[in-house]
Write a structure and sequence with these properties.
The protein contains four helices and no strands.
Length: 153
């Protein structure tokens, strides 16, 4: 599976799981209750979906230009880290405002989620790629057809 279909399947599964985990985590670590946490979880998932599609498109464009193909350990770590850093910038102010907490509390809350989601993102991508195969950007390039050798007699 490749292209937009792959991205949509990826984002759908990733975010459904993430939304449930985020809502529970936010409810457990704030005084606002489950209803506020669910709204924050849903909105953060919507932001994450848009970011996920944008980030993965940009990452795959960069990845396709790399000499070394595949997705080794370091590339997977870079992928997960870049994704999570983008979310921090977008979600900390949202959490502070909606949950009526300080930016510092929102950052600490988000750091807890980040640690979890770094691991989750890494493992999710590993399992997803195993089940659905690597995207075209990470697959080895096909060897060009060998040139016919002419023999000199």
């Amino acid at each position: 599976m490749q292209g937009i279909k792959r991205k949509l399947v990826y984002v759908s599964f990733y975010e459904l799981i993430a939304m449930a985990i985020t809502s529970i985590g936010l409810a457990l670590f704030t005084d606002r209750g489950l209803s506020h946490a669910v709204v924050a979880g849903v909105v953060s998932s919507m932001i994450a979906v848009a970011w996920n599609l944008t980030y993965n498109t940009l990452f795959e464009l960069w990845e396709a230009k790399q000499v070394k193909r595949g997705r080794g350990f370091l590339r997977r770590i870079a992928h997960a880290t870049g994704f999570e850093l983008g979310l921090v910038i977008m979600l900390v102010p949202l959490f502070a405002w909606w949950l009526d907490i300080t930016l510092w509390h929102a950052l600490m809350l988000d750091i807890g989620l980040i640690v979890f989601f770094l691991i989750y993102t890494f493992l999710f991508n590993l399992v997803f790629d195993h089940l659905f195969g690597l995207p075209a950007s990470a697959q080895p390039k096909a060897d060009p057809e060998p040139q016919a050798c002419s023999s000199h007699s």
